[in-house]
Amino acid sequence: MLAVSIVIGVILFDQLSKFMVVNLLPWQEGVSVIKGFVQFYYDTNHGMAFGALDNHRWVFMILSPVALVLFGWYLNKHRDAHKLFTVSLAFVIGGGVANMIDRVFRGELFNGAVVDFIRFEFVEFATFNVADCFITVGAVMIVVYMLFFDSKSEKPLFSDVKKKETSPETETVAEEQVNE
Questions:
Q1: What's the pLDDT tens digit per position in 114-141?
Q2: Residue 164 lies inside a defined structural domain of this protein
Q3: Of 29, 45, 48, 55, which shows the fewest CB atoms inside 10 Å?
């Protein structure tokens, strides 16, 4: 239930932010939010992240839904997993679905563009949106989970390390071998 709530929350937050940008901000005009740091700048992206595959939309229009379904299946299969993993994957799924909604419904049906509006002022970087933020943060959190939590988990999802049950006899034998 936690994962479903997060996915729905991410989608709603992203779509509400895009609705506000489309209806309140002039096309390709920036409004400084934190002067010298970040601005809202209404733009669209017909490609993937950073405009990649702009002329090859069919690639990610096929791969994105497949990946989202696989992520959802994996999350459902491991619904009792560590909360960090659950939240991480829910962030990625929610952001992916939110951007897919734009691609399908914003503009010409199945030929839409993703609304991007967050732009850094202090460095030359791509314009992005709330869904992109959740996807990125979720991906980083998955890596953190894999590096620091998975191998310590009762049921590791990624590592081959299985917790070994130790008995007092095996601990004594191990101590004797170390002392020799």
A1: 999 999 999 988 899 999 999 999 999 9
A2: no
A3: 55
The pTM (predicted TM-score) of the whole model is: 0.80
150 counts as catalytic: no
Give me the helices (H) in the chain, please: 2-24, 57-77, 83-105, 130-148, 168-179
Q: Is 14 a catalytic residue?
A: no
Assess contact for 64 and 47: CB atoms under 8 A.
no
Catalytic residue among 14, 132, 150, 160: 132
CA distances from 20 to 16, 38, 117 (A): 6, 17, 11
164 Rama class: left (phi>0) / alpha (psi -120 to 50) / beta: beta
Q: Is 175 inside any structural domain? A: no
Cross-strand pairs, 127: none
**Which residue among the candidates 14, 43, 102, 116 is catalytic per the annotation?**
116
